[in-house]
């Protein structure tokens, strides 16, 4: 039943050969990989205003203008330097790979850890912001913010478990609809004021209540930098593009830059014209949209497309983080399970972990993007810096033709992103960035530990110089059958064991004297010719007395002999069957296997699930 | 590491013989079993006012007086009829047993289901109300209501896992302190107004805004009846008392009735004198206490003792529900795991399930007792009714001396509680009682299903007329070893299998051609003389191809032969080891065992966890 449900949710399994069909062209790639960056406009301008408006009132809008220009310049530098990364890393040039290749393992892991944290935050932030777009339009949904956000995340997780290409198709339209809607809103919003003479309903704002300090400007800048998160997604995803990978990726990167400039710049300008004031219940975009369009169809379209693009942005993480984790895991720095492809060829374990952690974050931060944003962006800019520095080192080392020009761009990128990372870390530190600053080194440490564990395991399992030596067959034939009663399942096990060995004892742990007597009686009644050992267990424990018996002089095995425990286990065919029975067998097995000289045989006895008349329950009270 | 933590939390295991020491005398019994009933005063008067005040304002207090008297009369009837239950059921006369004995299985299960639901609700309601007592005194803790409530529940769960007697000792003082504090507050509260001439600061209340309807009175009565929940706890717990069980239980029941009359009656009277108005942030008790005592030590003492008694009330469920479940499970109507005693002789599975479900309820209902209360009490009164009716039928059937007198009391109890159950169900139906009305029949259905499953299983396992017949040893010796590589663990497994059988093949699922070639090469290199079968698996699946092979003509086993799958499994000694490896072996096992003709041998290879220098991670990149 569970597996049918899974099949319905995830779809039919795909063969490994079907992998190559799951690639994107420029159109689908732009919608799937750029949505993170494009959608940031839904909260970036707002973040700037959250910091400025309470302090300097009306003056905020002047500063926002300059800050927006600074952020757009930063974007241009990033786009140019990432074009070079795409050229050099046709198999995907995520910061992890670039940093590891050029700066060494630890730098790579720092980049990997930063990106991992930021991908998780992207899901939580974008899904929360997407919900805000809805609740701004329909305030009666405000109490259900957290639930709605969680549902979005789970839908995405399921979509991604179904496979990349399908979800890309599903999501292409909304991206372009969002872009188009934003273009219309910005264009008409400017025309309405400049040419049609509309006078916006402005909130009454005081003038500066404090002096403008550098720190404040920096905090606002750091807030606005969230607009740039997601730019690296394209260089990570190069191999996901159709041939020619690199050309397609660069085209997408170019369009992405262009769109951000227009939409982010335009939105900041509109916020100034309409003097929107941030609050938790109604987003800036929805405030502007309701003034530009009134409360009509277009207003709702803006809210709907904003929600959809933000969900797509979260989706970026769902397609990229599992890929990143699989790369890290293939290098041995993360649990190996992340390398396994699921039924539909997606990296299902990564998707599930991402879904789980981001859901927890949403619950903790009450689905409020504004509370999550201080944690955001530190990681992104740390990985930007490492990636750019890595590229810079690469050019300086290899010196290909035109390397000075290339090194200049990446060097500039490295310096600019480093400074930005410092600004973000410094200004947001007490508001939450400290958590990330602690987590990154922890992650790096754990990743190093995992690697050394894998190396150690491989060494211990390696057959280097090992010959195939046969143990004495007498040393293997000690069989012990733990029993809790005498029934058909036990009988089958006894018979099975007798075919393989002559050195068999049955072993019973006595917790209840009556039960033990019944077993002894049946043993005689059925004339079972296997010795029955009985041990009392005052603490109702099983493993202890059994191990004691094996190691006692009474038992004939020697130091290095392998003792085989044969466990009768009855298996209920219905899926709920296991809930209703004690799992002594299962528990026994997992504990016994910790001993290197014990092998465990499980002999199943399958209980058929009949559709029983419920009156049976009365027949034997 | 985990088991050390468990040991620290739960304490050293106790032997089964230590069971008899864990009993209570009158003092500890009163504190442990009556707290549910006594503590209800913390919300019962308040529930009456919640319904009346918004509708009829000042007039509410008049009606509350009459309602309180009605509820106290109901209490007396209950106390008298439960005395008779204690006399007749020295081994614990929970409604489940009484109803099942006298009215039949289904009636018993309905009582059992009702009680189960109400015990779970008791934990959620009492812990939430306990937190409210704290947040009323310290409003700055209001945002943390849910977390505080959860912590209370978890502490109780741990306390109960440690064992009954210890927790009884821990909790005796607070009960008596609460009772004493209430007596003082009621006494001084009355004196302050009647003799010292204090004029209370009354909230301005309008007169009736609507006419008083019968329905409204009934709703208020239903709300007040929550004061009576928990009265049945004592008759359930008879065997937990020291000898003489029954006398001690009856004494406790008598004192309980007396205390409720004084405290509930007194509190209702005080609420009238001080005209307290219910609101979600400040409980009625705390409003009254702050007027009676001012904001001094006594005020805080009232809040603290209220919290403690409410926690104790939740604790009643922790000691009673696992007991009830163990009784139901022993009859085969609930999963057998509920009958197992943990290390400390408590029914640990019941405790854990209760803790889990009540925590979820607290989260869903935001730790607000007022939202949970409509679900409450329907179950209690359903089980009251069944238990009383059961006793009535018992007297009428058996006709012992004085049966008319006894039947009268239980008959009266049955009628009164039945009417009350109807009132509660009717007036609270749309507010939440419908949930309970759906859940009870669902539970009963599931319990009947469980019973028939157990009967069916027992029939299939029973040896009735079964002789010990040995299968042909050749039919058992087909061994297959699934391998994913060639290493020491696989080698050990091959050697082990060779000692037991000559009919062995190794079986490899090829997902990756390179890997398969390496295995074939090593197979030759080490001159392994076991045939290696290779199968491609396009869907990266393992079980399917293996089963196909076993059933193909290529494989020598016949229809009824047992095929033994020998699985090499490496086991990492460190607790976190399992997180880092694929669980193919485990997964294989659980799926293979569903086939009745397949036995599974697990041959462990233990990997030692070395404390590795982290630099190892760099050595082999």
Automatic annotation (TrEMBL), chains A, B:
GTP-binding in keyword set: no
A Pfam cross-reference name: AA_permease_2
InterPro entries: AA/rel_permease1, APC_K+_Transporter
Originating species: Clostridium uliginosum
GO CC annotations on file: membrane
Topology term for the membrane: Multi-pass membrane protein
Entry protein name: Amino acid transporter
Gene3D superfamilies, alphabetized: Amino acid/polyamine transporter I
Main location: membrane
UniProt GO MF annotations: transmembrane transporter activity
Bilayer-spanning residue ranges: 60-82, 103-125, 137-158, 170-191, 211-231, 252-277, 297-325, 346-365, 371-395, 407-426, 432-448
Coiled-coil regions listed in the entry: none
Compartment(s): Membrane
Record key words, sorted: Membrane, Transmembrane, Transmembrane helix
């Amino acid at each position: 039943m569970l597996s049918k449900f899974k099949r319905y949710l995830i779809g039919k399994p795909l063969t490994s050969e079907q992998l190559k069909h799951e690639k994107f062209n420029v159109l689908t790639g732009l919608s799937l990989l750029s949505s993170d960056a494009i959608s940031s406009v839904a909260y970036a301008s707002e973040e700037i205003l959250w910091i400025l408006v309470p302090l300097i009132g009306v003056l905020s809008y002047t500063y926002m203008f300059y800050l927006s220009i600074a952020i757009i310049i930063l974007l241009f530098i990033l786009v140019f330097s990432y074009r070079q990364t795409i050229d050099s890393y046709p198999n995907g040039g995520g910061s992890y790979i670039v940093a590891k290749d050029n700066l060494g393992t630890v730098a790579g892991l720092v980049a990997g850890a930063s990106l991992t944290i930021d991908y998780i935050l992207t899901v939580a932030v974008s899904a929360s912001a997407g919900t805000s777009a809805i609740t701004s339009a329909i305030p009666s949904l405000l109490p259900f913010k957290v639930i709605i956000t969680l549902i979005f995340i789970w839908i995405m997780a399921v979509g991604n478990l179904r496979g990349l290409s399908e979800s890309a198709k599903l999501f292409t339209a909304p991206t372009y609809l969002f872009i188009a809607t934003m273009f219309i809103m910005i264009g008409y919003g400017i025309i309405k004021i400049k040419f049609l003479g509309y006078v916006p309903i402005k909130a009454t704002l005081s003038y500066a209540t404090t002096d403008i300090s550098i720190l404040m400007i920096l905090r606002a800048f750091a807030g606005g930098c969230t607009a740039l998160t997601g730019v690296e997604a394209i260089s990570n995803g190069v191999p996901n593009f159709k041939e020619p990978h690199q050309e397609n990726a660069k085209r997408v990167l170019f369009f992405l830059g262009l769109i951000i400039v227009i939409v982010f710049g335009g939105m900041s300008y509109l916020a100034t014209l309409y003097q929107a004031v941030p609050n938790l219940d109604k987003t800036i975009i929805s405030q502007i949209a309701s003034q530009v369009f009134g409360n009509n169809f277009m207003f709702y379209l803006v809210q709907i497309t904003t929600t959809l693009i933000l969900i797509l942005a979260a989706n970026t993480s769902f397609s990229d983080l599992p890929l990143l984790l699989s790369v890290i895991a293939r290098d041995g720095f993360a649990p190996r399970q992340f390398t396994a492809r699921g039924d539909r060829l997606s990296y299902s374990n990564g998707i599930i972990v991402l879904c789980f952690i981001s859901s927890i974050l949403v619950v903790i931060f009450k689905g409020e993007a504004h509370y999550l944003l201080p944690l955001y962006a530190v990681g992104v800019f740390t990985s930007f810096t490492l990636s750019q520095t890595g590229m810079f080192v690469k050019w300086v080392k290899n010196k290909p033709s035109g390397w000075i020009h290339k090194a200049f761009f990446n060097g500039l990128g490295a310096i600019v992103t480093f400074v930005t990372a410092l600004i973000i870390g410094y200004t947001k530190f007490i508001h939450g960035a400290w958590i990330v600053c602690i987590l990154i080194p922890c992650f790096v440490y754990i990743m190093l530990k995992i690697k050394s564990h894998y190396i150690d395991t491989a060494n211990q399992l390696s057959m280097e110089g090992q010959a195939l030596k046969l143990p004495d067959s007498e040393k293997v034939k000690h069989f012990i059958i733990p029993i809790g009663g005498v029934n058909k399942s036990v009988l089958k096990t006894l018979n099975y064991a007798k075919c393989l060995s002559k050195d068999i004892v049955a072993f019973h742990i006595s917790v209840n004297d009556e039960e033990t007597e019944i077993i002894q009686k049946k043993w005689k009644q059925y004339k079972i010719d296997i010795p029955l050992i009985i041990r009392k267990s005052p603490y109702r424990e099983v493993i202890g007395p059994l191990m004691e018996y094996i190691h006692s002089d009474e038992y004939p095995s020697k130091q290095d002999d392998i003792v085989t425990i044969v466990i009768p286990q009855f298996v209920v065919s219905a899926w709920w069957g296991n809930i209703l029975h004690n799992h002594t067998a299962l528990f026994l097995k997992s504990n016994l296997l910790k001993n290197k000289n014990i092998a465990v045989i499980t002999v199943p006895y399958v209980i058929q699930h009949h559709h029983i008349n419920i009156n049976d329950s009365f027949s034997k009270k």
